[in-house]
Amino acid sequence: MGQLTTLLFDVDGTLAETEEIHRQSFNSAFKQAGLGWHWSAERYGELLAVTGGKERIKHYIDKYAPEFEQPDNLSQYIADLHASKTEHYTRTVAEGKVPLRPGVRRLLNEARQAGMRLGIATTTTPANVTVLLEKSLAQDSLQWFEVIAAGGVVPAKKPAPDIYLYAMQHMGVEPDECLAIEDSENGLISAQQAGLKTLVAVSQYTHDHDFTNAELVVDHLGEPDNPSHAIQGSMNNSACVDIPLLKSMWKKQGG
Ligand code: XBP
Ligand code: MG
After folding, report:
1. Which domains does the chain have, with CATH numbers?
2. pTM of the entire predicted model
3. Residue 145 C-alpha to ligand 2 middle, in angstroms?
């Protein structure tokens, strides 16, 4: 009988409500470039269906900016615009004012104390992960994760399974000893296509996403004084998402 040895965490929307900062950073980059583009929260919620900031900008141009005079080297233009956005984003997060979501720090510490292995599988740019972990979690927290699989290290971003497969390959673990923690429909699809049992903590931009196939969907990972609530599946009488709950969920799903 195997056991649950490894937790794989998504970043944006899962560790912290960072998508709103991404949105503001995109808008700052557009303004700095003299573009009259502004992504409202509503528009951004739609655009999040496309993962990856560069892919998202290209999708926006194709769908919403037909008047945009495309430069000869559009992909370089987008890459430069995205690099500017990443500068805005990392500068904001580096101020250390981005709080982790409820239960994230607690669960990570519980997992470490239980000797579990930790990895990250995210679509976002690596620099965004570094600054969030160092400034919002702990200065040395990059070392807590055996792999930080981020952004363009794989050919296809979520919902493709690539980033989770990459993370497991680099950790030398099999899907049946892992569990993924996500916030979005694309993330759920990616993790499940990689063969992973998945817990979803719904986030600010994913309340209307389809999580039908998720083993457990909660409002957040919870704290003893701020309990989680199951939106789908059962909390097994746990007040918050803790290691025993993850292990029982994992077993129930044929772990
Ligand atoms: C979320 C994403 C990212 C961010 C923006 O990643 O899809 O594209 O929205 O970051 P995840 P970049 O939920 O997998 O962490 O602009 O660096 O892509
Ligand atoms: Mg996410």
Report:
1. 6-17+99-253 (3.40.50.1000), 19-94 (1.10.150.240)
2. 0.97
3. 17
